[in-house]
Amino acid sequence: MTSSPSADVQPSHPRGCPPLLLGLSAGLGLLLWGVAALRHGLLQSNAYDLGLFDQWAWLIGSGAAPISSMEQVHVLADHGAWMLYLAGGAYRILPSVHWLLASQALALSCTALPIWWLAEQAGLTRRRRWLVCALWWLQPVVFNAALFDFHPETWVMPAFALALWAERSHRPRLWFGLLLLMLGCRDGLVLITAGMAVDLAWRRRWRWSLTAAGLSAGWLLMLSRWLYPLLRDGDGPKAASRMFSHLSGDPLTVLSGLDWSGGAEYLLLLCLPCIVLWRRSSFSTLLIGLPLVLVNLLSASASYRTLVHHYSLPLAVVAVVACIDGLRRRPKPQRGVPWMLCWAMACWLALAKPWFFSGPYLARIPQLQAVHEAQALIQPHDAVLTTSYLVPQFSQRISIGFPKNKQSPPPPHEAAAWNVLLLNPGDPGWGSSRKVQERLLTQAKDKNWSCRNWPSGLELCRAPVAAKQQPRLGNAPSGSRPTP
Q1: What is the pLDDT of residue 236?
Q2: Which terminus of the chain has a smaller tally of CB atoms within 10 A, N or C?
Q3: Which 3-state string (H, E, C) describes the chain?
Q4: pTM, 2 dp
């Protein structure tokens, strides 16, 4: 067994950060916020997940029941993310989706601060501390996660890095509190706390390992046996069944059904930006990511095995901290720092997605004027069924949804849940189709809804008595599922 990466490091206090590091973290956070806001303004954000979390935060801030009209799920029954109530407090002051986008961007950029403290704790030279901070900022998944809508686990990436610092500094109370904070943003982070238990067991820190393992198991049991059934009318977590339903059957069938090529490519892309600096001393830290990597590899959805989505974001923290462990065993000459930065930049250019702004993200510019005009025609109390990419533009209301392809016809009383349709069959968005949206518009016109269309293909239809059908604040309508 290896010893602790910090076995020769005494408990310490962070000595603060250079003003330049604080300035760069703030500046890069503002830049990431601007990029995410631009993507949102270009109609590239989506119902899943920006629209979903924006509606939840708005409902909390409005004092309404935080139940999504798209999923009919309470905010705590989604991922047990009680931290979203803090966002609801901000929405009470000023309802704006930019609370989510800005806080996400700043949290990701400021993760460099505890990474600096970890490098300082490991005894790295000042130049190497700057290197590991740059490696964090240049992680492709960091940029992509900041860009790809919003996910609450991004808030606690600084807490994750700081928890590693606290453990190495023998600060059990701070460490345990930070783990609780992490779990309060997403149930999936229990894989990281379980990975920390594996790492601590490898280093024979048994009490710490048992604490992390007990917290992980206790949190899962609390969610699956109590909170989720309480808020879902007896149903437990559904994510696991969706992710691993393909793993049933005999072992040969299961093995043949796995995405071996995609998994190998995923592992390669994960390791590529940082593997040059990993050493034998990095192995223990890399164990922290083992449970999350295994789950991503076994998942039925290929989106778990990319650097485009947020699912691999905690692994970026693990990778950079593993670099710190590798650097502290290297001799002092630092001639490789510029080359490492060039390599990290090359990986960022190849795997991050800034070039989407030169093409794919510009595709909906012709719709902008029409969407702005439609926004002026839609009232706050309207129940709106729209395309997935327009949901975040209208999600601060009781009822918002988008028409899905795989949706059985609703009962007659649910079909009347929407009083406004805002659709574009020519660009139906994620999860929908031209056929579904044309059918909805035809049904609306057959019922004498008043409709208006724009040259971009966008069409708005309003029910004749919509002004008299205002849903009560706090009660999500029973028919919030979109009709095909």
Answers
A1: 62
A2: N
A3: CCCCCCCCCCCCCCCCCCHHHHHHHHHHHHHHHHHHHHHHHCCCCCHHHHHHHHHHHHHHHHCCCCECCCCCCECHHHHCCCCHHHHHHHHHHCCCCHHHHHHHHHHHHHCHHHHHHHHHHCCCCHHHHHHHHHHHHCCHHHHHHHHCCCCHHHHHHHHHHHHHHHHHCCCHHHHHHHHHHHHCCCHHHHHHHHHHHHHHHHCCCHHHHHHHHHHHHHHHHHHHHHHHHHHCCCCCCCHHHHHHHHHCCCHHHHHHHCCHHHHHHHHHHHHCCCHHHCCHHHHHHHHHHHHHHHHHHHCCCHHHHCCCCCCCHHHHHHHHHHHHHHHCCCCCCCCCHHHHHHHHHHHHHHHCCHHHHHCHHHCCHHHHHHHHHHHHHCCCCCCEEECCCCHHHHCCCCCEECCCCCCCCCCHHHHCCCCEEEECCCCCCCCCCHHHHHHHHHHHHHCCCEEEECCCCCEEEECCCHHHCCCCCCCCCCCCCCCC
A4: 0.89
- pLDDT, position 292: 95
The amino acid occupying position 163 is A
* pLDDT for res 31: 97
Give the pLDDT confidence score for residue 2 in this predicted structure. Answer: 46
What residues in the chain have per-residue pLDDT under 70? Answer: 1-15, 234-257, 329-335, 406-416, 466-484
Measured CA to CA, the distance from residue 103 to residue 106 in angstroms comes to 5
Nearest alpha-carbon partner for 417 in 474, 374, 375, 471: 471
Query: Cis peptide leading into 199, omega within 30 of 0?
Result: no
CA–CA distance, 461 with 448 (Å, rounded to integer): 9
The predicted structure's pLDDT at residue 408: 45
What pLDDT sits at residue 7? 45
All structural domains of the chain with their residue ranges = 19-44+97-358, 366-468
Q: Report the pLDDT value the prediction gives residue 91, as an integer from 0 to 100.
A: 96
